[in-house]
Amino acid sequence: MLHRAKMIRATTRLLTVALGTALGAVSTTFGDGATPERLIAREGAEMVLVPAGPFVMGSLDGDADEAPPRQVTLAAFYIDRFEVTHARYAAFVKATGHKPLIDWPSGVMPAKLANHPVVNVTWADADAYARWVGKRLPTEAEWEKAARGTNGQVYPWGNSAAGKKAASGEDAKDKTHPEGRTFPVGSFPDDASPYGAMDMAGNVWEWTADWYTAYPGSDHLELEFGKKFKVIRGGGAIDYYGAASTRRCADRARSAPYGRYDALGFRCVMETKENGQ
């Protein structure tokens, strides 16, 4: 039985690679002439286009909740190139009267954090901000496609971590911050996705719109599945309650919607004009 299971696993991995290669071959252009590859949203954030089409979602190389890999087809959308910063969130708080962050002394944003990704936001906080700027939180599928592209690559930059730096793991630690720390967004040029989205392998874990559930076709069961936890993605500069960042695009984690954390933030997405922008 063990030998048979290994054979099935190996065969499935080969099919995943083949599927990814085929999809990558037909999805090499960004944009169609009418839809710009990048735009500046109304709040000033730069966004990058993720074109419509299929991609490989999931993996056999991580935890069981990532399997089975499958083809998912999405409409085109824009995603924030960078994670939402403290400065942008402060503008939201000022304009709406939304409750300031717990790590802002006396409710005032520390100037030194202005260009760092905002953290210690609940899912509802992130959702409220996204609605305020006319956007929304990404689905889990949108987040993963924006991170890895169409061909099922392991990391935002490719299939090997060798020599690459991101704001996670040892690269995010120093003598003053042995547990890790956040950085100004876009500080690690290696950590760029095929579409130009930055910091998708580090800096902060990111809220998505979706509940933590099993993937279609999976027989894996977890008590945490259901409408209890929201999926978080990306891996952060600080391990999430013991869950270390693997930097892998398919890696899944979860948080209670009311949860706050020193390395949990978000970015937003928006439809293209063709899809309702």
Provide structural commentary.
- The protein is built from 4 helices and 10 strands.
- With 277 residues, it is an alpha+beta fold.
- It has a single domain (2-275), classed as paralog of FGE (formylglycine-generating enzyme) (Alpha-Beta Complex).
- The strands form 3 sheets. A 4-stranded antiparallel beta sheet has the order 1-2-5-10. The protein has a 4-stranded mixed beta sheet with strand order 8-7-6-9. A two-stranded antiparallel ribbon has the order 3-4.
- It is globular, with a radius of gyration of 18 Å.
- The model is unreliable at 1-32 (pLDDT under 50).
Helix/strand/pairing class, anyone?
alpha+beta
Radius of gyration: 18 Å
Are there runs of 5+ residues with pLDDT below 50, and where?
1-32
Numbering strands along the chain, what is their spatial order in the largest sheet? 1-2-5-10
Query: Secondary-structure element sequence?
Result: HEEEEEHHHEEEEE
Strand content: 5-15%
Sheet having the most strands: 4 strands, antiparallel
Q: How many H/I helical runs?
A: 4
Global geometry: globular
The first-to-last residue Cα distance is 52 Å
CATH superfamily: paralog of FGE (formylglycine-generating enzyme)
Nearest-integer average pLDDT? 88
